Amino acid sequence: MSITRISSGGDFEAKVGYCRAVVAGGFVHVAGTVGQGDTVTDQCRSALEVIGAALEKAGSGWDRVVRVTYMLPDRHEFEPCFPILSATFGANPPAATMIECNLIDPKYRIEIEVTALAGDG
User: Fold this and answer.
1) Contact assessment for residue 45 and residue 9, using Cβ atoms and an 8 Å cutoff
2) Which chain positions lie within coiled-coil regions (predicted)?
């Protein structure tokens, strides 16, 4: 089985020892991704941009995402993200889980991780 590793070039990838996404076994596994910005919605949009770029590099897309996990330090901040997430996934919503937990830095309000089908098959 071939494995393809996709880097976004972020500082933490080399520092921590991970890559943005791994394509293996017919799936694209995108690492938990935080976004930039002051609000949870800014960070949600930013994280989705990074994830979308990784999916594109892997030859996949939002319509092929089968699983998504949202992690937030405050579950009450999840609802403002609903319209953004609904617009992103459209008619192809994945299975989803939301977990309330601490993130690596208190400035982060949301982290998003996805699994998608690889390629066009």
Assistant:
1) no
2) none
Domain count, the chain: 1
Q: What is the span of the domain harbouring residue 55?
A: 3-117
Q: What is the CATH number of the domain that holds 73?
A: 3.30.1330.40
Q: What b-and-e string marks burial along 54-85, b requiring 16 or more CB atoms within 10 Å of the CB?
A: bbebbebebebbeebbbbbeeeebbeebeeeb
In this structure, which amino acid lies at residue 40? Answer: V
Distance CA 77, CA 37 (A): 14
User: What are the pLDDT tens digits along the chain (121 aa)?
Assistant: 799 999 988 788 888 889 999 999 999 999 999 999 999 999 999 999 999 999 999 999 999 999 999 999 999 999 999 999 999 999 999 999 999 999 999 999 999 999 999 985 5
* Residue 109: closest CA among 58, 6, 37: 37
Measured distance CA(66)–CA(96) in Å, rounded: 9
